[in-house]
Every structure is written in C-alpha cells, then in structure tokens.
Amino acid sequence: MAKKTVKRSATKKAAPSKAAPRPAAKAAKTAKAATKPAAKAPAAAPPKRAAATAAAPPKRATATARPAFAAAGPSLGEHAERLRDEILQSKLSHPDPWRYAAKARGWGERAQVLVELITVRGDTAAARGSLEALAAELQADRDFQEARRLF
Q: In this structure, what DSSP letter does residue 9 have?
C-alpha cells in the first residue's frame, strides 16, 4: 500500500525571530540575580583618585598603520607623480623640444609605470629603487637640468 503525502499550505509560517523576548522564567532569574547584593563588594576608590580620573582628558586614538616617514616628506606616490610632471614640463620648456622629446618620452613612460605600480602595490622596495634610479638618471642629464632651469 502506498503512503499518502500530506499536503502543505502555500504560505510559510514565520520563523521565530532571534530577538524574541525571554521566557518569563529566565527573565525572573535575571531580575533576582540583579537584586542580590554581591558577596564581596569592591572597595570604593579614594576621593582624590576619583576626582583625578574625572578631570583627565580623554585619550586620542592614534593611527599606528601610518608609516613614520610620511611626516618627514611626501609619500612615494606623490614623489613619483611630481617627477612625472617635471618630465612632462621639461618637454615643453626645453630650448630644443624636437631633439629632447624623444629622450624625455622614455623617462615619462617609466615614470607613469612607476606611478601606476605604486598606486596598485603601494610602497615597495622595488618601486622605491626604480624611482630613485630614475631620479638619479634625471639629475645626471644635462638636457633635463637645462629644461628644468627654464621652467
């Protein structure tokens, strides 16, 4: 003989919420525990100490994730952006822009790649080394220095 299946209604019953009030028995126990005096009451603080803690200003939250060198100067990303902007400006201010533009184009592309790399990965040793190498190369180049002088 085949079993008959029970048909269920189309509407579902609401699941009991987790924020439902406590049963009366648990609520009564909690109330009794709150009214009972503690076996050992902590000793009251001396009045001088209480006054000192009330007058003390609240402590400020400090950001520990921030690197220490940020206060000393611009971040690595800002330095890379500034170097890229100087290269672009030098292309416009050089006395012979047609000859200089080909040389500066390579520097500009390297600087742009560094800006994007620093934006994505952050301050890494490899990015810092590449940026310092590019900056040293620019400082040693006479054409860049001449264009920079004419900014």
A: P
Q: What is the pLDDT averaged over residues 32-55? A: 54
User: Could you tell me which residues come within 8 angstroms of residue 73 by beta carbon, excluding any fewer than 6 positions away?
Assistant: 79
In the chain, DSSP finds a helix count (H) and a strand count (E) of: 6, 0
What pTM was estimated for this model as a whole?
Answer: 0.51
CA distance 98 to 110: 20
State the Cα–Cα distance between residues 109 and 44, nearest whole angstrom.
70
Residue bearing tokens 């009251």? 44
User: 134 to each of 65, 100, 110, 144, how far by Cα in Å?
Assistant: 28, 17, 8, 12
Confidence band, pLDDT 50/70/90 cuts, at residue 68: very low
pLDDT in tens, 103-144: 999 999 999 999 999 999 999 999 999 999 999 999 999 999
Phi first, then psi: what are they for 130, rounded to 5°? Answer: -65, -40
Rounded to an integer, what distance in angstroms lies between the CA atom of residue 132 and that of residue 105? 18
Beta-carbon contacts of residue 77 (< 8 Å; ≥ 6 apart): 115, 118, 119, 123
